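Please complete every field before forwarding. Incomplete forms are returned to the sender.

SECTION A: IDENTIFIERS
Entry label: holo-381
Bound molecule: pyridoxal-5'-phosphate
Molecule representation: SMILES string

SECTION B: INPUTS
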Amino acid sequence: MEFRDLKRQYQELREQMDSAVLSVMDKGQYIGGSPVIEFEKDMADYVGVKHAISCANGTDALMMALMVLGVGEGDAVFVPDFTFFATAEAPAFLGATPILVDVDEETFNLDPAALQAAIDAVKTEGSLKPSCIIPVDLFGLPADYEAIESIAKAEGLYVLEDAAQGFGGELNGRRACAFGDIAITSFFPAKPLGCYGDGGMLFTNNDQYAELLDSLKVHGKGSFKYDNVRIGVNSRLDTLQAAILSVKFDAFKNYELAATQEVAKRYDQLLTDAKITEDASIPLIPVGYLSSWAQYTLKFTSNELRDKVQEDLKGKGIPTMVYYPTPLHRQPALAPYLAHTQGSLDRTIRLTETVLSLPFHPYMTEEEQEEVVAALSESLR
Ligand SMILES: *Cc1c(COP(=O)(O)O)cnc(C)c1O
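SECTION C: PREDICTED COMPLEX
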């Protein structure tokens, strides 16, 4: 069994995929061109924002977004403690100070009360300027943008939505990647919408930001490529990846996102029926939210139980993953910034000890899910 079966997806899409890829090679334009432009337009339309700007990966997208917002030395950037490293790496790379904030134990996402406390603590301490919040749509579930946007407004902070795992999610009718001043996603193969390599995208309604991003991603170009008006980077989505993504995006819109909802519902039911819920809680999707299910993650009652179950399932050839085994505040690279992080991070610590993500993808069959649940039952018996 595969954790996320990308080969099966390719089998389903093979005909269109091969012809999309071959057509790029026939035309011989490997950077830019209509596949990239059309894909950007389709993505902006779907999300409901004015501009979608493609780039080389999600980490570059975070970094360029922060550059556009002018984040750097002396700035405090608030990020959840429970996320992938890149969320804190991007502000640190630009000289800013990531402030790690605890998450809600039910949704795994940034806790607005902890966020407010962290902002207050930075203001009291006084050496850094609160500048930006980077909420993460962890495992496909949008963060609590209604609460976060109101805090950001009251405090005069930017919001950068890290939807690397969140593409396709919704909150009260608004789609992920439409929140904040700028939003980003990643097309890393295992994300909800992945390519066959690295890729990323930025989203914004702000014309000025979009223009700056267009320049930054091509060496700070001015009126043309060899007119360089600022220091930028080289961060583009390959034409081949754009062609691949166009095929995958159609499948995502037409049936994959709906299929993931079915697979999640089936897990919920099977796990409840098998009483796994006595030892582990199933994911909570609050009213008004839609998850794109980047991960289906259980939370066990203890660390010992989680580790035993993972070991037992591995013995049966069922792959599971721990996202994430280490809170960001225990990552050695972030140690120099920790003096500025004040609040408790206990909930993140508990999550790193008890979470376990199950095999999950839109092509998963009922039989495969039953096999996973039977193995869980046996391990817990
Ligand atoms: C994957 C991921 C990123 C980085 O995306 P890449 O395309 O791998 O650079 C950033 N933030 C989060 C939350 C992610 O999961």
